[in-house]
Write a structure and sequence with these properties.
alpha+beta, Molybdenum Cofactor Biosythetic Enzyme, Chain A, Molybdopterin biosynthesis moea protein, domain 2, Molybdopterin biosynthesis moeA protein, domain 3, 4 domains, 6-stranded mixed sheet, binds adenosine monophosphate, binds magnesium ion, MoeA_C_domain_IV_sf, molybdenum cofactor biosynthesis, magnesium
């Protein structure tokens, strides 16, 4: 199955997350809104001065070189005041423009001394100058953030500015199950025939970095009985029941791939034999109504499958419409001699070239390797059946863009 078709199916199967949480805005950065945010107030709430200077009526400037006493002084935080025709006010950035005034002249454009101001003529000033009108950033009751949008530092600032201290976010609990008798945790002394688990830590970090901090993680041996027990425990205990299950390893067709058999007795799995490299064994299904993603065991396949397949689906479940990452097309410095049968995601680095950025490929693209994924800053896509020559352009996704979304 081509990657594009797999993505279509994944997105079609994505159901909105039921798990939502009302949390303090300040704790929500990086997460996905479960409901839209509306402005409680106009922002700014009142017309205010954009500069330090003098507030007045534009019509009063008809006489050039006019010198007037300062009738009022309004600083940021002062209550709104009123000016009568012919009066001027000393005003500071952020202060409410007095009722009756319609223009603010920058202090650099007038002469202010001893409580008086010498004003410029109308030709150098425009009516309405230097006033930030009420509601220019947001209007009261207007939607400022849509459901599904991810909270960036800027959007947290915008939400605070409209008077919201709490937001409702998607809060799915995500269970990461690593499998394999060969694996041991990094705390232990290395044992013969064993390797350290890298998928668990990598996947947990990928989830956290892409806005899903609520991760449960457990390692399961290649033992159908123990796998079954663990799964039953997660599915029956309401304190632990996840909203999504992601596994690594154990879903291929090997004799020791028991996860598959156990999961199939709890739900329905689709084995697509995806035309993706790395990541062919990627599996999707439902386990007691929960979405299940079975990632391959190889660490770089976990990275690619998570970023290209799992993350867009999770984002759709959060209510996002545009979840497909947008590539940029960049020339490459390398060649790929043999046309592949699977769409290949190469670990590449984007470096400055003569005229534009160019892509360099790590010499070792083994799906079992992570050092090349650390060296790389993104993925370049080689379409099925294509050979690549230096100077050809490939679609490139930076890891930063993929994770930020
Ligand atoms: P599997 O799909 O279980 O056959 O695993 C494929 C390859 O990935 C094997 O070489 C495994 O040892 C390796 N692998 C599986 N799980 C992990 C893991 N959590 N960390 C590192 N390597 C793993
Ligand atoms: Mg295994």
């Amino acid at each position: 199955m081509p990657v594009s078709e797999a993505l279509e199916r994944l997105l079609a199967a994505a159901k909105p997350f039921q798990a939502v949480q009302d949390i303090a805005l300040i704790d929500a950065r990086g997460q996905y809104l479960a409901s839209a945010v509306r402005a409680r107030v106009d922002v700014p709430a009142f017309d205010n001065a954009a500069v330090d200077g003098v507030a007045l009526r534009y019509a009063d400037l008809d006489e050039p070189g006019l010198t007037l006493p300062m009738h009022l002084r309004v600083a940021a935080g002062d209550p709104p005041a009123t000016l009568m025709p012919g009066q001027v006010a000393r005003i500071f950035t952020g202060a409410p423009v007095p009722a009756g005034a319609d223009t603010v002249i920058m202090q650099e454009d007038c002469e202010i001394a001893d409580g008086r101001v010498r004003l410029p003529g109308q030709e150098t000033v425009h009516a309405g100058d230097n006033i930030r009108p009420a509601g220019q950033d947001a209007r009261r009751d207007e939607t400022v953030m849509e459901r599904g949008e991810r909270l960036t530092p800027q959007s947290v600032g915008l939400i605070a500015s409209v008077g919201e201290a709490r937001v409702t976010i998607n809060a799915p609990r995500i269970l990461v199950l690593t499998t394999g008798d060969e694996l041991q945790p990094p705390e232990e002394m290395p044992l013969p025939g064993k390797i350290y688990d890298s998928n668990g830590p990598q996947l947990e970090q990928l989830l956290i970095q892409s806005g899903f901090p609520n991760v449960l993680r457990e390692h399961l041996p290649d033992d159908p009985e123990l796998i079954r027990n663990a799964l039953t425990r997660y599915l029956t205990d309401p304190q632990q029941r996840p909203d999504v299950i992601i596994s690594t390893g154990g879903v291929s067709v090997g004799e020791e791939d028991h996860l598959r058999a156990v999961l199939e007795s709890h739900g329905k799995l689709d084995f697509w034999r995806l035309a993706i490299k790395p990541g062919k064994p990627f599996t999707f299904g439902e386990v007691e109504g929960l979405p299940f993603f079975g990632l391959p065991g190889n660490p770089s396949a976990v990275l690619v499958c998570y970023l290209m397949l799992v993350l867009p689906t999770l984002r759709r479940c959060c209510g996002q419409e545009n979840v497909l990452p947008q590539p940029v097309s960049l020339p490459v410095k390398f060649s790929i001699g043999k046309a592949g049968k699977r769409q290949e995601y190469l670990r590449v680095r984007c470096t400055p070239g003569h005229q534009s950025l160019v892509l360099e490929k790590h010499p070792n693209q083994s799906s079992g390797m992570l050092s090349s994924a650390v060296w790389a800053d993104g993925l370049a896509v080689v379409p099925v059946g294509e050979e690549v020559f230096p100077g050809d352009e490939l679609d490139y996704f930076s890891f930063a863009d993929l994770l930020n979304g």
